[in-house]
Every structure is written in C-alpha cells, then in structure tokens.
Amino acid sequence: MPAPHNPFKAALAEKQPQIGLWVTSAEASMTELITTAGFDWLVIDSEHAPNDLRSLRDHLMVVEPTPSHAVVRVPFGEAWILKQVLDAGAQTILVPMVDTAEHATEMASAMRYPPQGIRGMGASGGRASHFGKIADYVATANDQVCLLVQAESRAALENLDDILTVDGVDGVFIGPADLSADMGYPGNAGAPEVQEAIAATIKKIAASDKAAGILVQDLGSAQKYLNMGATFVAVGIDTVIFAKAIRKLATDAKGLL
C-alpha cells in the first residue's frame, strides 16, 4: 500500500489553478467549518498564527477526509521542524523566507527520505503512515510530498533564477506583505514598484516548471494574478473575513436602535 496520492502536488505540476484560503484561527473546529466551503487548499499557518505541533495535527485530522488539501506553513525553514510536521501527516509544506537556492535545496532534502534526502525514519508509528498501516510509506512518500518556498525579499527575487532550478521545489509563493516592507513600502503592497516586482516574478515562475502562488484579499487581484500565470492563489484570511463580518453585523444591528 503506497503513500496517499497528493492531488494538490499533481495539480501544480499540471499548472491547474487552485483556489485557497489562509487559516490563522488556530482552532481545528473552525478549520473543520472552513472545509465545508469547498476551497481546493487551506494554509494552516504556524508562522504568524498560534499553532503548535499538536494543534497542527488536529487541523490535519479534520482536513484529511475532505476535498480540501492542507498546506502547513512552518514558522521557519529548518529540517527538524519539517520532519515533525511531515510525520504528523502533512504532505505539503510552505517554508517562509527562502532567499537562496542553497536554502531551498536544504528544504527539499529535508522533505525526502534517503537517498534523495535526509528525512529521518520514524513515521511508521505516526499519522503519516496511518500508524504503520501504509506498509510502503517510506518507499513511496518522496513522490507525494510537495514543497512550496516563499520568495518575500529583494534577495529572494535576485536569486529567483537559481531557486527555480532546485529539484524538489514544486512551487514558489510570493509574500506581498514582507516583500513590500523589504522594498521600503511597509504596509503598502499596492505600491507600483512592488506590483511591478510581483508581476515580473509571477511571470518568471510561471515560465518555469514550478508553480507560482500568492495571497490576496479581493477577487479582482486574484483574477489579475491568475491571468499572469499564478497557479495557487489564496483569496482571503479566515480571521480577517470573520472580523469584518462580525463588526459589520454589530454596526448594522446597532443602527436599528
């Protein structure tokens, strides 16, 4: 019995657009609710959301039986944390702040078992192998893991050509917020210089064998980036959507008085 098929990885390889949502609420019950919406992929964030390994596991448990695919963003790019998240059952990992091909290569190696990589043996007793039920997990897992690296600095854009040559990287995700800050426009990802950089980056990624990804918070921007060649686009953040809706409801309700 092989490792479970990763439909998200397959879709990226075929450059089939995937629409997602950023999940930062850190509550698996909220993630379970979100899976009923029909998004292709959900980022379970542990860089800026208060998730730990156990809560990530709980998110993975509620997403796994649904059509949505869980993408776990780790807080930083080091091999040991990728190993833990993979063993907890993640198949797709998003690594922030990858500025060089060397770092991307390290992350690709951390995702895979030897001889292709350095992932440590130990999944046989955990969720990744369905607690040992998937007898061929170690022999087949390398083909089903998916690595996304974030380009969110001037250094990353300068090194993009080299990053795009790294075997084992499936997609490059542009981080507009951090990129705009690094370019001197903190809080203003809409600055013309930032938008020009994003557009050029998406087109370069799309022309390679990697998939381009980005996070937006309006459908107009989503359509724009899809037209440029982005493959995986997140169209909102759960807590932002909830906050706007609940505040509007309270304001509108008080207006009745």
Structural commentary:
The chain has 257 residues and is an alpha/beta fold. It has a single domain, classed as Phosphoenolpyruvate-binding domains (TIM Barrel), CATH 3.20.20. The chain has twelve helices and eight strands. It has helices at residues 7-13, 28-34, 53-63, 79-87, 101-110, 137-140, 154-158, 160-163, 176-182, 192-206, 219-228, 238-254, and strands at 18-23, 41-45, 69-73, 92-95, 146-151, 171-174, 211-215, 232-237. An eight-stranded parallel β-barrel has the order 1-2-3-4-5-6-7-8, surrounded by seven helices. Strand 2, helix 3 and strand 3 (69-73) form a beta-alpha-beta unit. The radius of gyration is 18 Å and the shape is globular. The protein starts with 6 loop residues before the first helix and ends with a helix.
Key terms:
single chain; 257 residues; alpha/beta; TIM Barrel
CATH architecture annotation name: Alpha-Beta Barrel
Give the C-level CATH assignment.
Answer: Alpha Beta
Helix coverage percent of residues?
A: 40-55%
Strand order of the largest sheet: 1-2-3-4-5-6-7-8
- The run of helices and strands is HEHEHEHEHHEHHEHHEHEH
Instruction: Please identify the structural class as seen in this structure.
Output: alpha/beta
